[in-house]
Amino acid sequence: MAELQWIAGAGSQAGVAAPVASRRKRRDATAWTVAALLGIAVLTVTFLWLRKPARPVETIQLTIPSITPQYRFTERTFVAKVSPDGKQIAFIATPAGQEDSKGMLWVRPLHASTANALEGTQGARTPFWSPDSRRIAFFANDELRIVGIDGGAVETLARPGSAAGGGAWSPAGWIVFHVGQEGLKKVSASGGEVVTISKPDPSHEEGAHGFEHILPNGKQFLFLASVVPRDSRPLHRLYAGSIDSGATTFITELSSKAEYLEPGCLIYAREGSLMAQRFDLNTLRLSGEPMLVAGSVFHFRPTGLSRFSVSRSGIISYEPATEPHRLVKVDGNARLLEELMRGKSFYQIRISPLRDQVAVSVVDPRNGTSDLWLYGLNRPTRIRFTSAPGYEDIPVWAPDGASIYFTADRKGWPDIFRKEVDDASVEGEVVVTDGSQFPTDISPDGRFLLYHNLVRGSESTSDLFVLPLEKNAQPYPFAQTPFEEPRGRFSGDGKWVAYQSNESGRYEVYLLPFPGPGLKIQVSTEGGDLPRGSMDDKRLYFRNGRKLMAVEFTSPIGVGTPQPSLVFESWLEFPQYEVLGDGQGFLMVLTDEALAAPPAHLILNWRAGRR
């Protein structure tokens, strides 16, 4: 202001002619005044801009469709994963119109509406990204493989066997994965020797290590140890492991896998919700109260499986828990006769010997476990048969209808129990031993229990065993090979057992004389599973995709060559079915495709406003 007053008084114009000085004085005064006003305006705007509150970063949620004109999601143990740079998403799907084919890897840019299939990845499962977001590792045909997202040759890194699955890729170039009860392994992303870095500790009753997740320093990783006490239900412990030394640090007991979200949070599932809790990378300690991330996520508590994934970019992907099933009656042409129940998730169904009730294992969406219910077939009744907090599944009626055999994890790994129908308080142990036991049928005379035993190990197998239902009897193997032989059923006369086996490379249905020995008969010819007999033993049904097939026995079983024929093709997938009776149709569990394959849900900037 003082300088402007000085200029206005011609303080700087000495020696200039009077008329010129007068004009220059007016001109200079005007220019300086404008400049001053502009300066004041700039300072004012800058001051107001700096004081203006910044626009808050918003949490954004979006979905990637699971069914499009291009593809359909198929992998049920894996959620779509966002690349570390946050630009692309990888998932397993079948091409549209080829739902019966093996799933393959697809990659879709998040900003695009179409996806690209990666050739040579048929049969892929549990894929995971490289740190630079340019390659994807996956398992297929018992091998660990790598493929570039731009296509090209598929590279095989290791052959860890069928029990291998899951994995994580560190910035230092190591891939960490688990192999059944053998524990956690590592292999260089450029190939080389597979090295064991942790093993389940029998002294702590550990059964398996898995769900590995690399921490930001690239040298440590999270993993979940499944603990299977002999006389109580399974639980899980979360550890941090060292890729270099194999040293482990206990973090907490947790019923779900966990992954790290910058800055400073662990994401995990609890009672069907996706949660976040503060986590210090230096001390490896949790603190504070858990915070809700999403209200519904698929979670199977017995194994710790949760369908979510956290990208290094901070994007969370997850699959919500759904209840996609309907329990219906259909006739021999797949026409709907009656709907008994909808809006649930059913694992197994079994019709009572009197054909008046059906035992159903109904899933609890909060933790993925199931309870047994009895539904009336002739009148709308519902009776809860089991209510323990753990896993109870696969009901098998005794021939007299007085009791039900089922599997439960009350003593660690699933074992077989028996409960009275009229007095549910009367219960007893039937088969309690190593591995996992699942009942499949009881002989028509009530003397033998048929069950399959899942052996836990590097090469998991499922063999058929028989237990004579008499005091102090011991089980013995009935169909035991290096392959899988689950889901056995007795014929009506008790002289044959129908079962499925993958010894040919895919599941086919076979008949084997009981109690043996004898040569087995292949029933299906182009794939088949879930064998079911008719009441008069004249037909054996089995499933092939959405097709219900049957073999007619015009001669005694074992005479002639069985020829499968189509009964009907269902308009929806049916994961379970039972024969109601000759001429009465079938009881089926139908799957709502849209609910069974929900879209991939993505959350961006979840930490916004939660610091």
Give a verbal description of the structure.
The structure is a single chain. This protein is mostly beta strands and 611 residues long. The protein folds into 3 domains: 2-51; 60-319 and 597-604, 6 Propeller (Neuraminidase), CATH 2.120.10; 325-591, Neuraminidase, CATH 2.120.10.30. The protein has 3 helices and 51 strands. The strands form 13 sheets. Strands 2, 3, 4, 5 and 6 form a 5-stranded antiparallel sheet that branches. The protein has a 4-stranded antiparallel sheet with strand order 1-51-26-25, with no helix packed on it. A 4-stranded antiparallel sheet has the order 7-8-9-10, with no helix packed on it. Strand 15 (206-214) and strand 16 (220-227) form a beta hairpin. The chain is globular. The two termini are 47 Å apart. The model is unreliable at 10-27 and 45-50 (pLDDT under 50).
Helix content: under 10%
Point out poorly predicted stretches.
Answer: 10-27, 45-50
C-alpha Rg (nearest Å) = 33 Å
Strand content: over 45%
Shape label? globular
CATH class of the largest domain: Mainly Beta
- How many alpha or pi helices? 3
Structural class, from secondary structure content?
Answer: mainly beta
Overall pLDDT: 86
Task: Count the beta strands.
Answer: 51
Rounded to the nearest angstrom, the distance between the terminal CA atoms is 47 Å
Q: Please describe the biggest sheet, giving its number of strands, its sense, and whether it closes into a barrel.
A: 5 strands, antiparallel
CATH topology of the largest domain: Neuraminidase
